[in-house]
Specification:
Length: 135
Amino acid sequence: MTINLLLVAIGGFFGATVRYSVTRSLTKNFTGRFPHATLFVNLLGSYVFGACIGFQISTSVNLLFGVGFLGAFTTFSTLKLELVKLKNEKNWVFFTNYFVLTYLFGISLAFAGVMSASLIMELKTHLQYIAFMLK
């Protein structure tokens, strides 16, 4: 149990650090109101987490990378805060776009990640079979 907590904590430390760096670099020269950096990290995280599921990673790797790193890299609370800010500003176009893009594309990209990983695993199996037959 202690090792599991340590894996999540280590992954979380690096995930939060990477999210901070990505967010800073994406917003450095951007002055608009649309929260594009959070949208980017959440969509990327959805795809990568879907791929992790498709690759059927081990429990310890899932704790380190899936729960820890990706849990800290993606940010549900920031998403909600930014939606509330857009609502309070009555910026309905950005609010609606952000909401729809996050949920529609988040689910779609998670599915695409699962499918991509499944296809890669299937391709790997076929390539191993071909290599075996060529020996």
